[in-house]
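Sample intake sheet
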Amino acid sequence: MSNGVVRRGAIVAVIVLLLSGAFSYIRLPHAQVITAPTAAHAAQMDLRDHPRRGPGPAVSGSTTIPRVVLGAATNSKVVALTFDLDMDAEMAAAARGGAVWINRDALTFLESRKLHATLFMTGMWAEVYPALAREIVNNPNFEIGDHSYSHPAFHTPCYLLGGVSRAEQARQIQLAQKAIERSTGVLPKYFRFPGGCYDRPALDLVHAAGLIPVQWNVNSIDAFNSYPQQIVSTVLSEVKPGSIVVMHLNGGSNAPSTGLALRLLIPELEKRGYQFLTVSELLAAGTSIQPIDPREVSEFYQPPPPPALPVKSTPRWCGWVIGLHGRVWVCR
């Protein structure tokens, strides 16, 4: 047999082997075509088997609703100053007796400088000061938010605030919305938890009410603080582009130095190139920053005050007494 015949035979044999091997592979099924209903069902199954810890950060310009807002991711030197207007039943009773729960100095300064700011008021505060609440709403540089009705904790521990049931939490949100709308004609779209404390069910209640929870990433620590320079130093050490700063406008002993602090703080922030925005304006300027804790819990523990020392009663009698070891002075 010639060499050419041998080569042709070998080539044919190789081709036969390749063809037989190809048909011996396991055939993979065709890829499944996923329709919109199928995708939705798959998403529901995934949520059932792997509960979501809350949506990821909202994409700037998208319609994603932030789970919780701490600030905005932006390179622009912008900051949102936010102020809480607290009120509980005890404060309301004091107001009826003449106490004034507004730091007029701070509010006047904000108004005179035409600074943009967001004020979170409790429903009870709006009821006690309806004219002032309307004044705030009528200022085009301000926007308002819901801070509950009477400032209870939505999760404990939360400083020294008392907690309430889930049903009462839902009622607090709705009562505040109604009270604020009655006093101002405006229905808030943002909510701030009293003391900044919340858990997952509390977040769900706020979202179910159609509100967006707004926290902060800079705490001025102006509550009950008599040292304006300390407030200023705290803010300046933590502020960055896109920050939300929490302060208070209650005045009295609750926020005695906020006005003085603002007069020092605002010029210094302006020197650093910062502009002041409302929360809505800030969220339009950048992507919302949200907590990374998957438990969705925010709490602030404050130890209870130490027990009061027993009051020593005034001795009824003192004198020398002869005892086993001689004379001793005794008071009884």
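Comment: The domain at 71-301 is CATH 3.20.20.370 (TIM Barrel). Residues 1-62 have pLDDT under 50 and may be disordered.
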